[in-house]
Amino acid sequence: MRHPILLSACLAGAVLIAGCAEKDADDTVERAFQDVNVIDESNLNDVMLTVADPNEAVSYFTRSTNEKPDRIDLQRGLAYSLVRAKRFAEAAPAWKKVTEMEGATAEDSVAYADTLIRTGAWEEAEATLDALPPTHETFNRYRLEAMLADSNEEWTKSDSFYEIATGLTTKPSGVLNNWGYSKLTRGDYKEAERLFGEAIRQDPTLFTAKNNLVLARGAQGDYTLPVIPMDQTERAQLLHTMALSAIKQGDVAVGKSLLRDAIETHPQHFEPAVRALNALEA
């Protein structure tokens, strides 16, 4: 009589063990898929933040944040993508939201201040940076501090911040160009010329610095192009800038000559230079 009972118990145990094994297997598979999904999502987020079209990235992170609004990394991705897309009016509140979330960092506040400056909210940007601890010493913070000092015409502070920022990056061309432009607006043309030249030495492709260098030379009455790397189109554009600088200084004859050189140098029809020359000769 005991054998059927024992057999039933064994069968029940076997079913239970099989059920547990099946459940464990399901859990293992589910965890594996979750791990794969996390890896895939992480890779996709990186792609969206770097190489994807900025507006596509905005759409991706907008969907992601709607599904998972508490994920600060996704909210940060949305804010950063809006900046990449140059949608600064939308990026500012997005960064503000990031700074108010659990896990926000000081660098998030710096990014928020950067976006505020791009929207012209200088006072709010300054207040945001002032709220950061002085121990947060990064290139981005000092770059923004320098720009804020410029806007307040606090030249000593500006120079100090630019100098610190330059020492905190391995790619200082952009901040050197900004520093040079600051000197240019103050009328310190010689120092501006030096800083623009250093920016070009750090990055020979930085056309903005080349153009600013020509402006600094023109402001000193020097209407010769500097010896810097340039292709034919850039040379024509720089001659055009030099011509306009000469005309502004009252050296109209020199300006006309430079405009003719610019037109002849440009590999295609150079409409702005042609229009300026025609206006002068009319």
TrEMBL record:
TPR repeats lie at residues 173-206. Keywords: TPR repeat. It comes from the Bacteria. InterPro entries: TPR-like_helical_dom_sf, TPR_rpt. It holds the Pfam family TPR_19. Coiled coil: none annotated. This is Tetratricopeptide repeat protein. It comes from Roseobacter sinensis.
